[in-house]
Structure formats: C-alpha cells, structure tokens
Design a protein that fits this description.
two-stranded antiparallel ribbon; mainly alpha; 9% strand; 4 strands; elongated; 10 helices; disordered C terminus; 44% helix; 216 residues
Length: 216
C-alpha cells in the first residue's frame, strides 16, 4: 500500500464534513457539490492552506465515484467557488475566501483580481490576512482575522472567544464586529487595563446569569 493511500485512509477514517448553513443558503449548494465544497473548506478556510489529498480520499469521504468527484470539482471551479493550484506537481484546491468574505461577511472587494487565478492580489502577497475571517469558538460563530486572533492570544483573552460564542449561540444575538465586542467585554471586566482599537460604542457584556452553562 502506497504512503499516499495510507495517509488517505487515516484521514477519512477519522475525519468528518462540517456543513454551514451559508453554504446552502448563500451559495445554493446541495448534494455532491455541497459535500465536496464543505470538505475542501475544512482544509482551506484559513485562506492559506489547501486540500492536496487524492481523488480517492474525496471519493471515500463522500462515498461517490472518482468520476463524480472530478466532475464536481470542475463544476465548483467553473463557478469560482474553489481554485485549482499545483502543489509539488499534484493538483490542490482551496475555497475562494474573497467570495466568502463578500457574500457571507459583507466585506467589499479590496484588490484587483489576478486574471489567471481569480485570486485578489496585494502588492506583496496574494492574501492579506487583515481581510480573511476565520470562524472560532465552540459553535464556530465568532468571526476573527488571523491578526485579531493573535492579538487576543497575546493578551491571554482567548477565553472571551468561547464566552462570545456561547452567548451568541444561546441568545441568538449578533454583533457587527466580534473583535471590538471582545475588547469591550474585556475592558468592562478589567477597567484598570487599557486596550487598543476599541470603538466608542459600547457592547454590553452579558452577566454570569445570562451566560449560564456556557461558561462551564
């Protein structure tokens, strides 16, 4: 058995496909397209990584034929939902982060498209992490960029990600800027500590009673 096949078997035996409602509502995906897209999203949602496994991996994971996998990947590529790249002489795929940011998070276009790849280009690199949002928290509903997440980590404030995640899931409440909300909550809990990048508008932090079991 080849190393690639062994790696694929280990992957799909211990992996799962996570489907978000926006994949269905916003992108109108269903069936094989939905499952394949969700699988690739799981590998490339950070905007930098990609899926570079074999066709057999996707075939076994979703329980469809290789031919169906190939057709589905082509359909998703034609629709600009995913991009195909070369990784060490192997095909690899990643989701169109810009499209997700625009349709799901409401972030407008910031840069011109590269005509060959369809990926927006910055002067020095293909991706600008300032505009790539990744879902965090137990319920995968806290939207933070890599830069924002790292700032919270440096300040030992990751607890507030879980706190916000549980609060939004439990109450259905939404916030326009999750990073600013977390900073405001922290400032309310620690008035003696100054935090930067906090807007004037206050976001009321939930009480212990309001959070209930989500704090445990």
């Amino acid at each position: 058995m080849s190393d690639m096949k062994k790696n694929d078997e280990n992957r799909y035996q211990n992996n799962y496909v996570l489907i978000f409602d926006w994949m269905i509502r916003k992108f109108e995906l269903k069936g094989n397209k939905l499952l394949i897209y969700a699988a690739i999203y799981g590998f490339s949602q950070d905007g930098k990584s990609c899926f570079n496994g074999s066709l057999n991996y996707l075939s076994n994971l979703v329980n469809i034929s290789r031919a169906t996998v190939i057709r589905t990947l082509q359909d998703l590529t034609d629709a600009k939902l995913i991009f195909k790249e070369n990784y060490h002489q192997r095909r690899s795929y990643k989701v169109n982060i810009d499209l997700i940011n625009e349709r799901i998070f409401g972030i407008p276009n910031q840069y011109q498209n590269d005509t060959e790849t369809g990926i927006k280009m910055t002067p020095n690199n293909k991706y600008n992490n300032k505009y790539i949002y990744i879902l965090h928290g137990e319920f995968k509903n806290v939207q933070l960029t890599e830069e924002q997440y790292n700032k919270l980590k440096e300040r030992n404030m990751l607890y507030y990600i879980e706190r916000l995640s549980g609060y939004m899931e439990g109450t259905g409440k939404k916030y326009k800027n999750h990073y600013a909300t977390i900073l405001n909550w922290y400032r309310k809990d620690h008035p003696e500590v100054k935090t930067e990048d906090v807007p004037n508008k206050e976001h009321k932090a939930p009480s212990i009673e309001e959070l209930g079991d989500y704090l445990t």
